[in-house]
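One chain shown below:
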Amino acid sequence: MTTAHNSTQAQAVDIAIVGGAMAGATLALGLAQLSATLARPLRIALIEAHVADNKHPGFDARSIAIAHGSIFELSRLGIWPKLKHLGTPIENIHVSDRGHFGMTELNAQPLGLDALGQVVELAKVGSVLLDELAKSSVQVYCPAKVTDIQAQQDGHVLSLDDGSQLHCKLLVAADGAHSVVRQYLGQTTEQVDFQQTAIVANVTTNQPHQHWAYERFTQTGPLALLPMQNMATSAMQAKEPSAQLKDPSTQLKQSSAQLTAKGQSRYSLVWALPPAQADDLKNADKSEFLAALQLAFGHRAGRFVDVGQRVSYPLTLSYMPRPIYHRCVFAGNAAQTLHPIAGQGFNLGLRDVVGLLDVIEQAIAQTHGEVDLGSSDIVHQYLAARQQDRDSTLRNIEFLVRGFSNQYWPLVAGRNIGLRLLSWLPPLKRPVAQTAMGWR
């Protein structure tokens, strides 16, 4: 990892990425891979304010589901093989509407797949990505904060908190929902407040998860459970890295066997509730919380026997209508933050990253490397490349939240008939599964 040095003169780079969590780190590694094929390598800088640990706002203790389409893109970039040992496959998804007849399943096997996606813990992923960045050609400033951004005709000048300055042709904002870049450039977002708060925690049940994930719609909002690796396996991998590198799939099978033997499993919980109820349950004692969770979810995953640290955050849809600016593009949560109802936040952000990489690669190929990466053409090509997918995903998420958090009886009847039709008519599942898996 490169350490920034004080300088009174701005260092020239082609691309400066602000934010080194999953979107920013993935973009930087993708650019480094592209750069290695060029006669004149790209000068890439990554500025990240936090080290990768559980307190990092982008690499905290949460888990996320990486869709099958995202795994394909991460594999294409050479990143997924580095992360694969951290993943827990989702082989089946059970969807139900509490108190009503609607339910269905999405299954990997009929689609000819091993898994619909993989669940990873963000803190562990963050450590791996930063290790890979340290071995790359990317100049990493971490921990470092942007203290000023000055827009110029040919780029942006970034001032960092150690006195360093960078001059970039293209500025990429990948610094999350509270983007510092967006604030310095005076850009705004539009927001939809769903009047819900999410409780996020790791929970333990008395049954093996068998690689099932669950999405249960309740009167208060959606409740999701994602299967996770057990703690013993994680510790074993830390002690025996050589074994995990030889055959990560063997480690995963051993994990499943251990879970079955112990008769327990871990899930990542995301539970949407009215703000006052979420506050009460976040601070309730363990037995009260587990009882309320059991009542809301039922016993399909077994009996809830333990819960870890609980955190909460308000659920909103926040997005930039045009995630571009003069010589600047916004990606991931800096461009939009989604309700977690369908687990599409990171997956949409990764498609932002891939879209930008494709635009840059095409521009370089067409000009034989002599291209201004911050030009208006490239910035607007990125906007055009992302518009349809982004707009449709935002619309679908808002429709799901409003449609499944509403007790108006025509909506209740309609959504339950829809879920049942998916069960009765399997061919209807394929387009739904393809959307869930991030395929376009």
Summary: Residues 1-7, 232-253 have pLDDT under 50 and may be disordered. Residues 376-404 form the longest helix (29 residues). Residues 67 and 117 are 4 Å apart (CA to CA). Residues 11-436 form a domain with the FAD/NAD(P)-binding domain fold (CATH 3.50.50.60).
